[in-house]
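Key result, reporting period 2: structure in, sequence out.
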């Protein structure tokens, strides 16, 4: 059932809400904001809890204990989280867009997402190994395909 087509984000239960996350890992990338222009830049430096091979958080349930600055995406804050990538299901649905063809809820697995290049799989380094974030700015997280 395509619950995301029949319900608003606010109407979804916890299981439905959590299943919207495709697990791409882009939200777990460190981001920089230019002080003068306020432009957002993604880096390939991932949160220390992110598994670079598949994009899942190794301590998802307890992530706030390990990374207090981690942001939980909720129906109440999704509109404010402008740093979420355009490919993010929460952002897409909030903006009235459809889920993309590669989304795991459409395809039944994360493989199509990885093949489409929409995840962090094998593209990141751990933030603890980065000396200068500016040296790790990348454009691929901005990619958004239907």
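The corresponding designed sequence is given below.
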């Amino acid at each position: 059932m395509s619950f995301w087509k029949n319900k608003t984000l606010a109407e979804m239960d916890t299981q439905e809400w959590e299943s919207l996350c495709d697990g791409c890992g882009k939200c777990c990338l460190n981001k920089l904001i230019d002080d003068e222009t306020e432009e957002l830049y993604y880096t390939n430096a991932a949160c220390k809890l992110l598994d670079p091979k598949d994009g899942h958080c190794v301590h998802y349930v307890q992530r706030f204990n390990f990374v207090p600055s981690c942001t939980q995406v909720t129906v109440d804050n999704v509109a404010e989280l402008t740093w979420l990538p355009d490919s993010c299901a929460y952002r897409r649905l909030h903006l009235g867009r459809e889920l993309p063809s590669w989304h795991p809820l459409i395809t039944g697995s994360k493989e199509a997402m990885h093949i489409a290049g929409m995840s962090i799989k094998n593209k990141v380094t751990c933030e603890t190994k980065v000396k200068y974030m500016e040296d790790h700015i990348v454009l691929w997280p901005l990619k958004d395909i239907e």
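The beta strands are 29-33, 40-46, 125-126, 137-138. The radius of gyration is 15 Å. This case is discussed further under Risks and Mitigation.
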